[in-house]
Q: What sequence folds into this?
């Protein structure tokens, strides 16, 4: 059941929306608001999954109200409704974190599509041997093992599952991984599932599927590490922001305000690998993304990732993958063809 909040100063339009929602399956109207204050109060107390707001609420900006709601309810899907198109309003709405800018009147077909897209799916368990290995690798704080198991998971998904089942299993895997984080509740889980949302490309390409899984695995590792060492947030962010550059250990330790030796010990404890290993693995994951989404050759990718020589990059890639970038790319394409 999808809970919906309507925020609109026009009572006639509110009434029309109420009737449309009454005819729409699997949804429930939890309230109607005519002002920004009412919308904020209802959103905070009822925590709806879907918010439909007019671009103006009396003298208030609906976009500003939606931005405040987004800060309180990062997991909610928020839609701005307007009688006219305006690039500035559209830009402001997107900047405020609105999911979509829609024109009035909203059709029944579009409303039904919104409700359907926000229905929560029951997580489907991945094959026990795969999911247990991946969870175990996180419990043991072994990032390289997690990386290798993620490749096994992708191989299983593309050899044994159709596209729809693959998507369900990927959502189930993400849910299970996020619950490893101590204190993770449903609202936080939904926030991360929205942040790392599945799309058709990620389901159809093995390399993008792998990159998606590693985004989640990396996020869980980061959360587990920074719960004890909050200053490590700056280290991880620096690495993500500079994957396309050469990264020096001294720069990372400066970001955290700790010695290089202490930084290395933290990585050994929470990742079972060195800082350098972690950086290479993040860069290789990015290389796979470029292979899947661009026409760049291996030399271009290696330079883009901060490696001064393509030969050195290939050597690093083979060290962690067991095969050259070209061979790995061909393998992934064959895996995709086998799934068609």
A:
């Amino acid at each position: 059941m999808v809970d919906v909040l309507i925020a609109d100063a026009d009572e006639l339009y509110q009434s029309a929306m109420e009737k449309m929602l009454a005819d729409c399956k699997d949804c429930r109207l939890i309230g109607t608001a005519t002002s920004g204050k009412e919308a904020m109060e209802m959103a905070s107390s009822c925590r709806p999954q879907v918010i439909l707001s007019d671009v103006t609420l009396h003298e208030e900006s609906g976009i500003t109200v939606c931005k405040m709601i987004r800060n309180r309810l990062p997991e909610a899907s928020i839609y701005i409704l307007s009688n006219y198109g305006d690039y500035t309003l559209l830009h402001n709405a997107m900047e405020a974190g609105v999911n979509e800018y829609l024109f009035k009147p909203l059709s029944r077909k579009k409303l039904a599509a919104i409700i359907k897209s926000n229905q929560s799916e029951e997580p489907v368990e991945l094959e026990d041997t795969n999911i247990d290995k991946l969870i175990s690798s996180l419990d043991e704080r072994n990032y390289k093992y997690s990386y290798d198991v993620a490749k096994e998971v992708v191989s299983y998904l593309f050899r044994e599952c159709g596209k729809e089942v693959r998507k369900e299993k990927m959502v189930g895997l993400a849910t299970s991984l996020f619950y490893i984080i101590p204190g993770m509740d449903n609202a936080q889980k939904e926030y991360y599932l929205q942040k790392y949302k599945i799309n058709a490309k990620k389901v159809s390409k093995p390399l993008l599927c792998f990159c998606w899984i590693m985004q989640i695995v990396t996020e869980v590792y980061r959360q587990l590490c920074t719960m004890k060492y909050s200053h490590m947030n700056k280290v991880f962010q620096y690495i993500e922001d500079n994957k396309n550059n050469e990264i020096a250990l001294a720069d990372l330790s400066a970001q955290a305000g700790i010695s290089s030796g202490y930084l290395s010990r933290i990585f050994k404890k929470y990742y079972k690998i060195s800082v350098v290993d972690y950086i290479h693995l993040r860069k290789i994951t990015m290389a796979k993304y470029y292979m899947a989404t661009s026409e760049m050759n291996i030399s271009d990718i290696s330079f883009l990732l901060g490696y001064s020589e393509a030969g050195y990059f290939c050597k690093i890639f083979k060290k962690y993958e067991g095969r050259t970038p070209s061979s790995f790319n061909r393998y992934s394409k064959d895996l995709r063809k086998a799934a068609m």
About this structure: Strands lie at 2-7, 27-33, 50-54, 56-57, 60-61, 77-82, 100-103.
